[in-house]
Amino acid sequence: MTATLYVWLRGERLGELDKLRNGHLRLRFDPEILDTYGAGARPLSLSLPLTDKRVQGAHLERFLDNLLPEGSVRGALERQHQLHPGDTFGMLQSIGRECAGAIQLTPEDIAPGAGHLVPLSDGEVNQIVAQLPTLDPPPGQVVSASLGGVQAKVLLTRTEAGWAWPADGAMSTHLIKPEPTSDIVIPDLIRWEEWALRLARTAGLPAANAELADFDGRLALVVERFDRHDGKRAHQEDFTQALGVASRDKYETTRTEHRLAAIARAAGREAIAPATFLRDLLAQVTFNLIVGNGEAHSKNYSLAISHAATYAMAPLYDVAPVYLLNDAFQTFGHHLDGQGRLSYLTATHLRAEATTWGLADAAVCETIASVGSSVRQALSTCSADGIDVDRIGALIDARAVGALQVVS
């Protein structure tokens, strides 16, 4: 027997998702969506162009799976909802009403409502954060919101009266990510992430707004969702979804994939201003290289998809100078001109890589120089909370100088 979920984008029905008897998933786009956008348009995903044929295969299954958490967080949710490991359809049936971007999935063919918010006391919020990575909803509630990624986090809604639990598909506005408890991670990681995001914004790059907050002794990073604007969902997808890559393969491990070039070509064709898109992509990669972000993999870049199905870079997020803090984190996440290790990567690789995207060398050099100069200026004014950034700041400054020398 076939089970069905209804797929909605910005509250409009997009199609039907079936789970077949063999366990595979199949998507059928509604004729009205094809009439609106035309065959070949990509309002849902770069990897899923509209067609009047049934859509099946790895790209569809990976796109949907990447809407969901990874690792122990995923396992905990599967146990809570009594699902078999890896049951993407079942998980989306349970928590698909509130996902990244503007996609929602419902078991019934009724447009998703606004859901409702359950006000939380300070004590309840502290308890929720204290229990992470175990998600412990307030009494009478279940987890009904999903966000990809491996780090423990909770999605809440900030109101004038305080924090609230988003129930029945209500829209969350923030994610709260506490300091990891594992011994193998970077000490003070969320402090470094807050500082790096602020450094990016000070340097003029769009980046997620974030602040540090103490929840009864557990420090956490409170990040404002940039896919939520004025009470509405804005659509986006990360690079794994755009490229049809499984979450387990978020790090580009071979020289032959050329993921950034693939994004540049495919998303650039769908952008209103392709040259601007390429410069924005290059600016983000340049910043991540200069600050030594060893977590700049394909789940940590995203594309913003407009109502007209045009593409742009979403703001930076999940940025931290992890390689400079611990040189064991050498993997950059993507290869640049065939090199993927931060101990060897330089702006020379970046310059050669970006010229394969369709940017003229002069535009490549101008963009790298602009980011390098802006980062150097931002370092002098970007203080930190609870960490000494002098040594790391000096290393970043030296890396920015090196980049400027390559393109001067």
From TrEMBL:
The keyword Transferase applies. Belongs to the HipA Ser/Thr kinase family. One of its GO terms (molecular function) is protein serine/threonine kinase activity. This is Serine/threonine-protein kinase HipA. One of its GO terms (cellular component) is cytosol. Residues 146-377 form the HipA-like C-terminal domain. Residues 5-105 form the HipA N-terminal subdomain domain. Keywords: Kinase, Transferase. It comes from the Bacteria.
